[in-house]
Design goal:
The chain is built from three helices and four strands, in the order H-E-E-E-E-H-H. By secondary structure, the protein is α+β, with helices and mostly antiparallel strands. The protein has one domain. Strand 3 and strand 4 form a beta hairpin. Helix 1 packs across helix 3. The radius of gyration is 14 Å and the shape is flat.
Length: 98
Amino acid sequence: MGAGIVGTDGVARLLAAIIVPFTRIGGVVERHQVNGQPGAIFRDRDGKVLNTWTLDILDGQIQAIRTVLNPDKLAHMGPVADAWAVVHEATRARERTT
């Protein structure tokens, strides 16, 4: 297993690289309890579920972010988005701004 993204600066850069283009294409991040833990549901512009994040928190600090992308595991939450189409569109949006 890889080392992952470590430190507040690395996490902030990663989140900016993901969230900014995602919201530019109409994506929404909703704060939500996921499996009893703090987290978020990511939805495309049509409100379809793209993925979920859960946050593992210890002593007030995020220790890990876990995501579910498998459409079969997300189906109980409602209509599921085409993740590859959303990623492709968000990537194009990011490229237009750089």
